[in-house]
Structure formats: C-alpha cells, structure tokens
Design goal:
two-stranded parallel ribbon; alpha+beta; 2 helices
Length: 53
C-alpha cells in the first residue's frame, strides 16, 4: 500500500496525471503519507463523491 501511495503522491506533486489521491476507510497503520496535503481521507466512497459534486 505504501509503495502505491508514494507513487501517486510523486505523480500528483511532480506534474503527473494524478488529480485525486483518496484514502478510503479506517486506517490501520498510520504513515506520514496519509497526512500529505495532497491526500484526502474519507470514511467511504460516497463521502468523497459528495464532496466532488
């Protein structure tokens, strides 16, 4: 999980094509990646979709 999240952060902050980084559900293992400003944390997918509208 951390490798994929790190790659998404690198793409989003380095001018890549990633526009949204969303972590869904409760976090079992905290990492500094989860607190990056580019990451949105939500409880469920519907919460994130509502925020997009």
């Amino acid at each position: 999980m951390f490798v994929e999240l790190g790659a998404a952060l690198a793409s989003a902050t380095g001018g890549g094509r990633v526009r949204h980084i969303v972590v869904v559900g409760p976090i079992q293992h905290e990492s500094v990646f989860y607190f990056h400003p580019a990451v949105t944390r939500v409880g469920h997918v519907g919460e994130w979709l509502t925020a997009l509208a």
